[in-house]
Description:
Blueprint: H1 14-48, E1 50-56, E2 64-66, H2 71-81, H3 86-94, H4 96-105, E3 106-114, E4 117-125, E5 129-134, H5 136-141, H6 143-148, E6 154-160, H7 164-168, H8 181-212, H9 217-230, H10 234-248, H11 255-279, H12 283-291, H13 296-324, H14 328-332, H15 353-361, H16 367-396
Antiparallel strand pairs: 1-5, 1-6, 2-4, 3-4, 3-6
Helix pairs in contact: 1-16, 2-3, 3-4, 8-11, 8-13, 8-15, 9-11, 10-11, 11-13, 12-13, 13-16, 15-16
Amino acid sequence: MNRTPTxxxxxxxxxKARIDRVFARALVLPLLLAxxxxxxxxxxxxxxxxxxxxxxxxxxxxxxYPFGLSAETILQKxxxxxxxxxxxxxxxxQDPKERNALFLQNRVELMxxxxxxxxxxxxxxxxxxxxxxxxLVEGLRRWQELKVGLEEGERLVLNPWLDQTFLTRxxxxxxxxxxxxxxxxxxxxVLSLALLFAIPVGxxxxxxxxxxxxxxRLSRILEVNLRNLAGVxxxxxxxxGLALFVRGMxxxxxxxxxxxxxxxxxVPVIVVTAREALRAVPDSLRQAAFALGATRRQVVFxxxxxxxxxxxVTGVILSAARLMGEAAPLLLxxxxxxxxxxxxxxxxxxxxxxxxxxxxxxxxxxxxxRVAAAGILVMLLLLSVLYLMALYLRNRFRRxx
Length: 401
């Protein structure tokens, strides 16, 4: 009679195997719970980024305009509705100073729905007054009631706070016209300069430790310090940047001081990932290059580094994603909470996306919470792009040795 081999036949305890299966299933529960909570938070953020509002225009009748018109045409019609003549409206749109002031004070937005129909443009002025603000579900439920109760100069809109103008406009004291454009450009400035400093230092340190330094006292000291730096809280780097770059070097609260601070924060991560990429290159490639008469410099920079480059690039992108979300060290080194102008150089004032979101959340007006929700979605979108880029590069250039 044939018997199927069991775990006892191979000397394996069946109770131990059962316990292993229970633990394996138990580990799945926290993962599912975490994914569920993340989905809940993302859904709540999306829900808060859309609201139903009743807005009273500061000037003009509060008209809406059909989809397909340009921003200049809409502003011209709005100026005419406010009582300006055609000559005055044309002058304001043609004169550079008047045109810049006009676009700063007015925001042309595409609303998903209005009291005059779906997908229509409205012109929101910084002095417009918010009469009522409702959540998405409540606003849609009371839509007809609110539409009937509109007074002269008021408009009812289904407002998606995250739109094209939100990504390009500077911040504002009014939540109706606030944008995140300055914070995005500040993030680009700070992150670019930080990586410009961190990549050569991090990659060079990794090459030095893996390819040139032998096992010894200096190598052990460097490794211990790098491991310690990788575990230091980011706010400690902010204190270091405040003492060294802002005050010690006299850079002040500038883009360069923030970039150097974040560069120090990113160096340990880049070193660790670059070393792992260098270790993944098989020694047979090194030995083959040496056998052909190549020098150590040629072996390192013409054989090893090109083979490890995909892993290094992936590590740099992941480090950039981490640096993009840092707010605590930048608050210490002087990231301004309100900057109405775009950065013009390494020594200019700046703000970044996380700091801008922090400012909006700390405001008392409830509409700023919706602006912050739109800013959080922008932040998540930027991080998702970086993570997907790292995943693509890892899969595209992966090599099996």
